[in-house]
Specification:
CATH class: Mainly Beta
Strand order of the largest sheet: 1-4-7-10-13-16-19-21-22
Structural class: mainly beta
Helix content: under 10%
Number of strands: 25
Radius of gyration: 18 Å
Largest sheet: 9 strands, mixed
CATH topology: UDP N-Acetylglucosamine Acyltransferase, domain 1
Length: 193
């Protein structure tokens, strides 16, 4: 008995490492040298490009392509039809093509149909709203919304919005009214929600 589940319609190429408890569903294609952590869910019609690395407890919803150069740390959530890029200046034919890395840090969430341009870092527990377009780095716990995505507030690990407790510009202190977690953020004027 296998330590993970792979649906019969999934295509798994050579030299793929799949962690214990991971589930891979219908019509998934996983290219060579991909590493998938434990207890992940790779949903219907997901494509994982060669050499992609995925942490533990990651959930990738339907119809997402994760291309070479994209790193997903533990506990990342990617909503259906989210889009990633790995080339800043794409052409059908290019001699100068190079992969531009993108990093999704622990616990961040990407909403349905969001677009993540290459070269950004989405920090831990940040939340990208559905349909947003991320063009620059995202602060830890930040709630980003729009096209291009802009800071709208901060979200706790427990997924509740942080409430502003006090401010001493540029330092802002937040409190989660559900779990009591505290957050201190230093924001420049242009970064404030």
């Amino acid at each position: 008995m296998s330590e993970y589940y792979v649906h019969p319609t999934a295509q798994i190429d050579d030299k793929v490492v799949i962690g214990k408890g991971t589930k891979i569903w219908h019509n998934v294609h996983i290219r060579e040298n991909v590493i998938i952590g434990e207890n992940c869910v790779i949903s219907k019609s997901v494509y994982l490009d060669a050499g992609v690395s995925i942490g533990n407890r990651v959930k990738i919803q339907n119809a997402v392509s994760v291309y070479k150069g994209i790193l997903l740390e533990d506990d990342v959530y990617i909503g259906p039809n989210a889009t990633f890029t790995n080339d800043m200046y794409p052409r059908a034919v290019s001699r100068d093509w190079q992969v531009i890395p993108t990093i999704l840090r622990k616990g961040c969430s990407i909403g349905a149909n969001a677009t993540i341009l290459c070269g950004v870092e989405i920090n831990k527990y940040a939340m990208i709203a559905a349909g947003s377009v991320v063009t620059e780095n995202v602060l830890p716990f930040a709630l980003m919304l729009g096209s291009p995505a802009r800071l709208k507030g901060f979200v706790c690990v427990c997924v509740q919005p942080f409430k502003l407790k006090n401010q001493n510009v540029p330092n802002f202190r937040f409190l989660c009214t559900k779990c009591g977690k505290k957050l201190m953020v230093t924001l420049m004027l242009e970064d404030r929600p």
